[in-house]
Design brief:
117 residues, 6-stranded antiparallel β-sheet, 0% helix
């Protein structure tokens, strides 16, 4: 939300944000988004190569009211494997999503094993 252009607060007033991503979000039209997520990077970048998998969770009441031209960041499913479509935006080296990434996982969506250093 902070990376977007504006945030509409609970009273319906537009608050300017950083403007780094073409996104307007709103707390005026509240809707609960809650659950565990599996996410796959759609393009390579600082988070990894295209196709890299992650586990995470989503918990927020904001809604996206406008999304401009930018590359989608992640392909997502819920914990039961239901397709949730794309989530997040990427423009150059700036990226963001509502999903809080917790861990990486392999293609089978199992947590990856970490090797001790």
């Amino acid at each position: 939300m902070v990376l977007g252009e504006y945030l509409i607060d609970a009273e319906g007033c537009r608050q300017r944000m950083t403007g780094l991503l073409p996104l307007v979000t709103s707390f005026a039209d509240r809707r609960l988004h809650l659950g565990y997520r599996c996410a796959t990077l759609l393009a390579g970048g600082s988070l990894g190569t295209a196709g890299a998998g992650f586990r995470g969770h989503e918990f927020h009441y904001a809604t996206v009211v406008h999304q401009g031209a930018a590359d989608p960041l992640l392909s997502t499913t819920d914990a039961a494997g239901r397709d949730l479509g794309v989530c997040g935006l990427r423009r150059g080296s700036v990226f963001g999503s509502f999903i809080h990434l917790v861990d990486s996982c392999d293609g089978d969506r199992r947590p990856t094993e970490l090797t001790p250093a």
